[in-house]
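yo

u said u wanted the structure for the complex thing, so here. seqs first:
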Amino acid sequence: MSDAIPEFRKAEATEVGITGSALTSGVGARTWSEVAIIVAVAIVVIGGLEFVLWWREVPDYIFPRPSLIAAALVKEFPLILPHLGYTLVTLFAGFTIGAVIGMVLAAVVTQYPLVEKVITPYILVLVTTPMLALVPLLILRFGFGYTPRIIAVALAVGPMVMINAATGFRRTDSAKIALARSYGATTLQMFWKIRAPMALPMILVGLMIGSIFGLLTAVGAEMVGGGFGLGNRLTTYSSMINMPEFFAVILLLSFIGILIYITFFLIGKKWASWQT
Amino acid sequence: MVAKLAIRDAGKRYGDLDALKGCTFDVADKTIVSIVGPSGCGKTTLLWSMSGLHSLTSGEIDLDGQRITGPRPEIGLVFQEANLLPWRNLMGNILFPFEVKGQKPDMDWIAHLMERVGLTGFEKRMPRELSGGMQQRGSIVRALSLRPQVLLMDEPFGALDAFTREEMNRLVEEIWLETKTTIVFITHSIEEAIFLSDRVIVLTTRPGRVLADYPVNLPRPRSLETMASREVFDLMNRIKADIYGMSSTRSRTAAE
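structre next:
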């Protein structure tokens, strides 16, 4: 028997789903046989590359064989290591400054819709313009030290973090706000207990993308000017046609990138897995 | 009969639309009152005004003779859907009100409530790991943990399947028999309203005002036999006639 009053169902409380996919879902090997297959494929790919390059007698300055790259990495590592440090300092300093400013700005601005509408175009300009383009200008003003690089990295990271964090802070679920209000939550409690946790998955997405953009900008800035950093090593080695060493540096850069990815993946799994 | 809640000429305007107008009735202490009515009759608006989360544009709502102007600790609220915070586990959700208020929770009472609704052992589970019915039971525990004098429930079981819904209705009655908390219950299920309530109030469509007010004098706890009685059947049909009457008037007006 249907005793429901004829009426349209009230629209469900709109819980905006976001794709924190890169953060919370990843492919992972589950069994030993899967691991074995992955390792076997890697050996075939690298070994095959080694064989083809040797067999076709490809010159080192076009594409050095993997074994040469590995040897160069081991031999040159003591020389490259300080530069790795310089790059990480640039990246870390620029990322921290940019991320903090980006998050604070997003948290504040989303409270004032008009302010947000006014500044969003500028943030978009900053997000879409490669900050690398500013490096020559920054070098003119600040010299060849860390300063122009850190500024460039912060400029690349900040807007990216801000735009994602703002999306997170805008996802206000009115039912959850009402819940907190019904218990008399203060504005500060509302922020830390409702808005911030709700925005966290998007903030993490912003930090992850921002850090990758930051690495790109850091290396780019090092290539443009100054005598240190992994980017500087790249230009130096390629100008000397030391291609195995050149590729060894690229290998290190990939390694940093993967490390960043894994870090945020783990943070996301721990703190944002409620999303899925 | 003491009026716990007094709704006096309550009205709410949104722009030039009257959602609620001249709504007047009392809710006696330690009773369950259901409000039914077609969509857009302002029943949710009315309930939110009782909670102090929304303000009225005319009239007033009093709790123990005191005008409600904002959220009150004596009033608990159960939302449509369970409205648990997905980033906290069940116990974290239940302790949330205490955290906000800076109050020490009464863990014995909470443990008792958890036992009562059958959630003991699920304290560490995240909301997404719980069924819809379990989530809503958790939200009832959250609302009752502060020992409110009045519990406002806004279509709490609308999203649940029929069986779970009946189970939840029995649970609400059991809890009421134990705590005698005054309950105002909004629903669009007439059967649910009759099963739970001491009184069923029917609201008209826009602007919402009281069309009918039926006492339900059935023995508690209410059994299947009681619910299958002639009395319940007649009451159900009268309420249905009220509501269908409204919608047919509306369609006739629309046709003209």
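Residues 28-58 of chain A form one domain. The interface with chain B takes residues 1, 3-10, 12-13, 175-176, 178-185, 189, 193-194, 197-198, 200, 274-276 of chain A (CB under 8 Å).
cya
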